[in-house]
Design goal:
mainly alpha, 10 helices
């Protein structure tokens, strides 16, 4: 059962990279304080936020009786993805405008204390992790169903943990980001501008427009 969970997680690693990469890569490259420990901690915060959202979804779906169905409603999946893009885009923009200010040499960021607090790197890592966790893929839906109906609660919990562990190898390359930023300083400014563009694209084109139109 453990091997099944790990292989199921590994099989969805490319899906995770597709949704997490555009968020994590510009965010981690653009942080003001670059160190291996801080980079790893921010990545871990993001991943824990994503895991927490998976547990929340499992609990909500189980309470609503949705896990009885073999297939996940694609309309609901698209709606959850729209909300994910909105929250993720807002969080990235708050981080860009509150802390980064890529269009100037000001490393202090915005002078508004509230915006700086909302856009804090640690808050951004946690919120974007929670937001990305709203994207439901077939392997994730399978893991949620298997963890709920695979036996007692403890066994189901560990099944899901090992499933999640199987997705983690795809995030290992992110741990080497400080090695690059310390040698190619322009990457930081490029990443900050990219983060603003990604945040705006998520919020407007993948979020608000599909939500209302």
């Amino acid at each position: 059962m453990i091997l099944e969970a790990i292989l199921l997680g590994f099989s969805t690693g490319t899906y995770c990279a597709m949704y997490c990469g555009p968020v994590l890569i510009p965010f981690l490259f653009g942080t003001e304080k670059q160190s291996y420990g801080r980079n790893a901690a921010l990545t871990g915060t993001f991943l824990l936020g994503r895991l927490a959202m998976y547990f929340i979804l499992g609990a909500v779906f189980g309470a609503a009786g949705l896990l009885i169905s073999e297939f996940f409603d694609p309309v609901m999946a698209r709606r959850l993805s729209v909300y994910a893009y909105i929250f993720c885009g807002l969080s990235l923009l708050c981080n860009s405008l509150g802390v980064r200010f890529p269009w100037s040499n000001c490393e202090g960021g915005c002078k508004c204390p509230k915006l700086r607090k909302i856009g804090n790197d640690w808050v951004t890592a946690a919120l974007t992790g929670l937001a990305v966790g709203l994207h439901i893929c077939p392997p994730l839906w399978t893991a949620i169903c298997r963890s709920v109906f695979g036996g007692n609660g403890l066994k189901g919990f560990f099944y899901f943990v090992f499933f999640y562990t199987g997705t983690l190898p795809f995030f290992i390359p992110l741990l080497g980001i400080p090695f690059l930023t310390k040698r190619i300083s322009v990457l930081k400014k490029i990443s900050r501008i990219t983060q603003i563009l990604v945040g705006a694209y998520f919020l407007i084109f993948n979020g608000l427009i599909p939500l209302f139109f």
